[in-house]
Amino acid sequence: MQAYRASILHLEADPSTTDGEAHAFHEDGLLLVAEGRVVACGDYAKLADELGDTPVEDLTGKLIVPGFVDTHIHFPQVDIIAAHGEQLLDWLERHTFPAEAAFADQGHAEAAAEFFVEELLRNGTTSALVFGSVHKASVEALFAAALKRDMRLIAGKSLMDRNAPPGLTDTVEGSRADMQSLIADWHGKGRLGYAVTPRFAISCSDEQLAMAGEVLAEHPTVWMQTHLSENIREIVDTAKLFPDAKDYLDVYERFGLVGKRSVFAHCVHLQGDAFQRLAQAGASVAFCPTSNLFLGSGLFPLETACAHGVKMGIGTDVGAGTTFSILHTLGEAYKVGQLRGEALDPFYALYLATLGGARALGLEDEIGSLEADKIADFLVLDLAATPLLARRMPAARSLEDRLFALTVLGDDRVVERTYVAGVERHRR
Ligand code: GUN
Ligand code: ZN
């Protein structure tokens, strides 16, 4: 057994729908881990009896939280993060597609995959839902890198059979075969999962979307991820390409792509009725604040989505997103809320990054909190990692104040250690 003594904070419920406290905080806490799972988590004074002769690692002064869940990120975009100019559609053509074309080269994909998963771990992200490039081999490189580290990673090859440069498009039957083979080889291997990944409606023909729906129906434990209602020009073009669809979401609905295991990135311009339909289907939304600000896409209506009961997670959306850090992303989520007159609650923010993200992926029995029997994916945070934090934190008046300052001022520098299934995978 492993034992860690530190302050511990995690969410056990959704603070937006819970009367009273949704979080558990142990100022002097103890986390017990065995065989990759949490054995117990609570006050040191109450759990010390269960230690037996297990040595305790004293991390007093540090904060243990669950590993972060990134519900939307693009693996082949690491090299064009922070590319200047353009909104979504021009950004895709000018920066993104050329960068993704490079992933046809297996060596390039393998090197990038190593960098990508290490960068996730450095930032405290232990689980992620990831877009690959259109190339099957690039997704295999990513799965192999995550498998080596036992990460809870779900990914898929982007489906795109139109409106992309030659060399970056696939075909209906070619992409069906690629997906069948990726699912057979990787879905359920270790902690990996496959997600059917139509890039967005603009890049997929009716036939390809129908095929994606068929593959999903054949594999009920596979996920689905795509983009929805991110940018005004994208929405106008989608309506032209799908004149029979009642709205953008309906494009995905009519092909059987909206269900309990579906995650829709952005949804910035979605109307109330569509949030209602997502909630009824049990589908989830990934809020990507740094991306929505960077591309000038708009301000996500988080309170409206919550009011309709949609499952919510947070996404970095690298490379339109500008950071791998979920902490920094939460700080930017707060600023998006400020521009809408909605102040994001710090506990709800941490919920989005942990248990909320886990629920968005249907993984709440496995990850998202530090309750007994869950997989021991957790972080040791150093709240004095920078001179500014070291000065600001002791001045905090409450746990809420500390947590809020952590999301506004914190980033990868705060993540001292990252544990995946009880094994240390990163140390600063
Ligand atoms: N919509 C379609 N593809 C993309 C992408 O790569 N990034 C973002 N942010 N939106 C998209
Ligand atoms: Zn995206």
Automatic annotation (TrEMBL):
A molecular function (GO) term: guanine deaminase activity
This enzyme's EC code(s): 3.5.4.3
Family recorded in the similarity comment: Belongs to the metallo-dependent hydrolases superfamily. ATZ/TRZ family.
Name of the protein: Guanine deaminase
Species, as recorded: Caulobacter rhizosphaerae
Pathway: Purine metabolism; guanine degradation; xanthine from guanine: step 1/1
Family matches, as SUPFAM superfamilies: Composite domain of metallo-dependent hydrolases, Metallo-dependent hydrolases
Cofactor note: Binds 1 zinc ion per subunit.
UniProt catalytic activity: guanine + H2O + H(+) = xanthine + NH4(+)
Keywords: Hydrolase, Metal-binding, Zinc
Amidohydrolase-related domain mapped to chain residues: 64-423
PANTHER family membership: GUANINE DEAMINASE (PTHR11271)
Cofactor dependence: Zn(2+)
Function: Catalyzes the hydrolytic deamination of guanine, producing xanthine and ammonia.
